[in-house]
Amino acid sequence: MVEEVDIIVYGSLNMDFVAYVRHLPRAGETIAASSFAMVPGGKAANQAVAASRLGSAVAMVGRVGEDELGDKMRIHLESDGVDCRFLRRTPGVETGVASIAVDPDGQNTIITFLGANACVSALDIDATLPLLRRARYVMLQMEMDPDAGEHIIRLAKKSGASVVLNLAPVVPIREDLYSLVDLLIVNETEASQLTDVSVTSPETALRAASKLRDKGVKNVVVTLGREGAVLQADGASEGTHYMPPLVQAVDATAAGDCFVAAATHFWNDTGDLQASVRRAVDVAALSVTRKGAQPSLPTLEEFLQFMQGKERRP
To answer: What residues act catalytically?
Structure first.
């Protein structure tokens, strides 16, 4: 049992049903998959596993159903060293699931069913307060009741933890909460939804990040898939664009979650956010070379070996 934690992750756990297809289906189209896998996933669970494999002490807070899928989720998390003392079983509700199609370029479409994830409550969050007081960072997403997400942010700041918010999916949150967020991470689609900027390039991503900082967020990252990520950091005169190394993408399902976890892990480890975002881009690039959500998430040793002699895309 982990008594001291670096990172507490609040949010969703899903069992992923993944079909690998020749192309993503169009409306009304039925296609055959070349292969299929059932693997543990969910944004929060992916982030918890990713941070733990990189070396952080991590606790997971969330809900699964009283079913076989929920039991499998717990077993997988504990096998990766994640503290699951606050992972609750929910009677009468199914564990969350995701149906995922992946094409040969690693691009995907995802449909999720929240299931027990929707049952995370303020009481669940309040129960973590003794552990929260000892944590340095909190990571959360919004695959939960938005009121629960807002409660996590307020309680985390009150407890002295730094808040990393992956605002995915995009849901309305109270404007005053933005000033409580130490690092906001969104992808290009989410950044476009949150601002009046159509994010189609690193330049437009930086404009969107600047607008999000105007809401009071201390630091903002917009991830750009194969174009890496941009960072608008607190105190920096201008934003920075980070390109990933050259890789052959196979499956990008958990790349965003991998990035969030890696940025938080290295930020906690080094205190240098810009260097941490740089390394998170690299870790996420490694993850897309592997199939599956949690199976794609690398250890620190695997990451360091991967980076030897790697070239960046121009």
So the answer is: 257
